[in-house]
Automatic annotation (TrEMBL):
<keyword id="KW-0804">Transcription</keyword>
<feature type="domain" description="HTH araC/xylS-type">
    <location>
        <begin position="177"/>
        <end position="277"/>
    </location>
</feature>
<dbReference type="GO" id="GO:0043565">
    <property type="term" value="F:sequence-specific DNA binding"/>
</dbReference>
<dbReference type="InterPro" id="IPR018060">
    <property type="entry name" value="HTH_AraC"/>
</dbReference>
<dbReference type="InterPro" id="IPR050204">
    <property type="entry name" value="AraC_XylS_family_regulators"/>
</dbReference>
<keyword id="KW-0238">DNA-binding</keyword>
<dbReference type="GO" id="GO:0003700">
    <property type="term" value="F:DNA-binding transcription factor activity"/>
</dbReference>
<dbReference type="Pfam" id="PF12833">
    <property type="entry name" value="HTH_18"/>
</dbReference>
<keyword id="KW-0805">Transcription regulation</keyword>
<protein>
    <recommendedName>
        <fullName>HTH araC/xylS-type domain-containing protein</fullName>
    </recommendedName>
</protein>
Length: 287
């Protein structure tokens, strides 16, 4: 991820590979805007709504969000101080919703407008990188001023906008957020569907409908993704004495062959291959 601090705003470029779910809360001091820089429609779900490649997501300060991606996605994000004029211009409609902690904008842009915004952001990165160190404070100020103008132009020329959560997903939101919070508080535990049912105090059928509507997947699929990612991070940081079979067992893997196939589908290599690759990168293996 590339991170660029301007005068007060922050510009970020990032990429996420493979299917995954990202749940978090925005900084209480910043309005956050995100757009895909990869041209993939329907690859990202935001709170149950499918995002097109030219959709701009606007997240108010201290806002809960849940992104679900079905494949590789590249993105650009802007963090604007909440008192910034463009931030105050776009916030009122969002924060007047009944659920200000989760309310957000999904703004549809035309393809040329979206492309222009992405290119302006890339140009900002080039301007800062190419400038002399002594000139960077002035260049950062000028670059931020130009970006704010570009964002104001984008906002004034939006095609349409929608507020999230919408009437179709708001009922599912509480259930899913409670489930994700329960999982977050038990990072080392092997979690089963019955545990989530108990934590959310709903029947499984209601839980299934909420997950499919809000996350685009079943609770079972979500828990498998969680298991795969936990194993990935454990392998990445395993010590020289650790055994792969112990890591898999600790995360509830019982069918090693089937799990290895899913792991390769998600990360592009078998767990054993990842173990060798990350092991070779450890400092203790340096010649």
């Amino acid at each position: 991820m590339k991170y660029l601090a301007l005068r007060r705003a922050i510009l970020q470029f990032g990429a996420d590979g493979g299917p995954g779910i990202v749940h978090g809360v925005t900084d209480p001091n910043f309005t956050t805007l995100i757009i895909q820089s990869s041209n993939f429609d329907d690859r990202v779900l935001l709170d149950g709504a499918r995002c097109q490649a030219s959709d701009l997501v606007i997240l108010p300060p201290d806002c809960h969000f849940t992104f679900v991606r079905s494949g590789h996605v590249e993105w650009v994000a802007w963090s604007l101080p909440r008192e910034e004029s463009i931030a105050t211009k776009i916030l009122p409609a969002v924060t007047s919703q009944a659920s200000p902690k989760t309310a957000k904008h999904l703004v549809r842009l035309s393809e040329p407008i979206a492309s222009g915004l992405i290119e302006a952001s890339r140009q900002a990165l080039r301007s800062i990188s190419d400038s002399a160190l002594a000139d960077r404070p002035v260049v950062a100020w000028e670059t931020e001023f130009a970006l704010m103008d570009e964002l104001a132009y984008v906002w004034d020329n939006r095609v349409s906008e929608a507020l999230l959560p919408n009437k179709y997903t708001v009922a599912s939101e509480r259930i899913v957020l409670e489930a994700l919070e329960f999982v977050r508080k038990n990072p080392e535990s092997i979690i089963h569907i019955k545990d989530i049912v108990k934590a959310t105090k709903v029947e499984y059928r209601t839980l299934l409908r909420a997950f499919e509507r809000y996350l685009g997947c079943s609770p079972k699929h979500y828990l498998k993704l969680r298991q795969l990612n936990l194993v990935y991070h454990e392998i990445r940081h395993m010590g020289p004495a650790a055994r792969l079979v112990d890591i898999l067992a600790a995360h509830g893997v019982t069918e090693f062959g089937r799990f290895a196939g899913r792991y390769r589908w998600l990360f592009g290599e078998l767990p054993s291959e990842a173990q060798r690759r990350f092991g070779a990168l450890r400092p203790d293996n340096s010649p």
